[in-house]
Amino acid sequence: MALLSVANIRTIVPYLYIYLLLYTSYECIKYSTLSLQLLPVHFLSRSELGREQEILREWLDVAATEEGAVLVARQAAERPPLLVAQLTEEWLNHYRKIA
To answer: Which of 21, 34, 56, 95 gives the lowest tally of CB atoms within 10 Å of its CB?
Structure first.
């Protein structure tokens, strides 16, 4: 079985996906005792008020839990160049050793 090099992996998976929480606080989800509050959506018309979640789903790449309780936006970001990734990993390893 041949191992994939970092360069080959970069051509297969060119994007890194970042998940952004669409609620005001992580504490709400962590303890699940407080009610979840969706981040405010600015500049809505009167007819759009109350449909914030529907509007977010329409305009963003959104994912939710099976229950629909936690809503996140998925953002695709290009992976950093190989040299930047290597330097970042070296920097992180240095600080991991210190900790």
So the answer is: 95
